[in-house]
Amino acid sequence: MLTHGIESELQGPTPRSLCLRDRKGAVGRWVGRLFILPHTIIGLFLLGSAVTSTVLFVRVWLFGEEYTTHIVRKTETKGAKGGMHYAFECEFDVDGNVHMIRIPVDKETYAAMKVDDSIDIRALGSSPDRGQWIRLEGRSPLKEALDPWGSALFWNAIVAIFVWIFYVAPIRMWFLVRNGVPTPGVVLSVREIHGKSGKSYVIRYKYTVSDAFGLPGEEFIGTMSSTKSTAACAREGDQVTVLYYPSKPKRSLMYKYAGYKVM
Predict the structure, then answer these.
(1) Secondary structure of the chain in the HEC alphabet?
(2) Count of Cβ atoms closer than 10 Å to residue 146 Cβ
(3) How far apart are CA 85 and CA 74, in angstroms?
(4) Dist. CA 135–CA 258, nearest whole Å
(5) In this structure, what are the phi and psi dihedrals at residue 157, rounded to the nearest 5 degrees?
(6) For 62-74, what is the mean pLDDT?
(7) CB–CB of 225/198 below 8 Å?
(8) Beta-carbon contacts of residue 223 (< 8 Å; ≥ 6 apart)
(9) Quick one: what percent of the chain has pLDDT higher than 90?
(10) What is the pLDDT of residue 5?
(11) Cα angle 25-181-6, degrees, rounded to a multiple of 5
(12) Any idea of the CA torsion for 225, 227, 230, 231, to the nearest 10 degrees?
């Protein structure tokens, strides 16, 4: 039976007034937040581009019309890494207005076609300069529409890890210490992890959530990671105070190793 006493500062009304346990750690978090901010903005831009590309594809599919363009100029430019880029500059008529588009092509297509050759496209009559389907062998409008999603998802998957570390996790911890319900818990195991930035500790614990009548109810197992030196002293069988959300009792933490404390 647990005999651990709940800290007096947790026995008052909520929401509680908090302060940081470690202000040096807070400086590191703010440096991380400032570092990840421009990367987050880039991620949002990539997602916006991917959505725009998909919307354009659907619009051209549903409302596009077929046009025939003619090559008026062939261009080849040297890339930053030394490779060559090939393209056709083509023009076509939409309701009496001449529009010009640039079509990037591979070396073989560039060599096989000449000025005045025709290329069929599908485009929107209202905005023919955007999202055209190019009717050339080896070109897939669907693939070209979905390609931006690869970069967007890859970039944002990496950024999401750091957003969780520097933004989401601290905010969730702050809300939990500020509003969580305290209950006695016991440490089940402590695992030490050695990383490039130093040691961290993964602590498993169990706790019991009170039922509607204030009596011990369901038991839960929680896991908490901590880089605090105090976590090095944690041992199996230690009795601790656990804070949990009443509406989501699986969401919890050990107060002793939280980044915030009650003032």
Answers:
(1) CCCCCCCHHHCCCCCCCEEECCHHHHHHHHHHHHHHHHHHHHHHHHHHHHHHHHHHHHHHHHHCEEEEEEEEEEEEEECCCCCEEEEEEEEEEECCEEEEEEEEECHHHHHHCCCCCEEEEEECCCCCCCCCEECCCCCCHHHHHHHHHHHHHHHHHHHHHHHHHHHHHHHHHHHHHHHCEEEEEEEEEEEEEEECCEEEEEEEEEEEEECCCCCEEEEEEEEEEECCHHHHHCCCCCEEEEEECCCCCCCEEEHHHCCEEEC
(2) 14
(3) 11
(4) 60
(5) -65, -40
(6) 95
(7) no
(8) 202, 203, 204, 205
(9) 65
(10) 81
(11) 80
(12) 30
48-56 long-range contacts, CB within 8 A, separation 24+: 49/148, 49/152, 50/148, 50/149, 50/151, 50/152, 53/131, 53/144, 53/145, 53/146, 53/147, 53/148, 54/145, 54/146, 54/149, 56/130, 56/131, 56/145
Distance CA 48, CA 129 (A): 19
Q: CA separation (Å) from 258 to 20, 34, 155, 159?
A: 9, 23, 30, 24
Interatomic CA distance for residues 235 and 226, integer angstroms: 14
Cβ neighbours, 10 Å, residue 27: 10
Q: Which residue has the tokens 């880089």?
A: 227
Q: For the segment 237-262, what is each residue's pLDDT rounded down to a tens digit? A: 999 999 999 889 999 999 999 988 99
| Both structure tokens of 148 | 């931006």
Q: Take residue 206 and report the two structure tokens written for it.
A: 């169990």
pTM to 2 decimals? 0.74
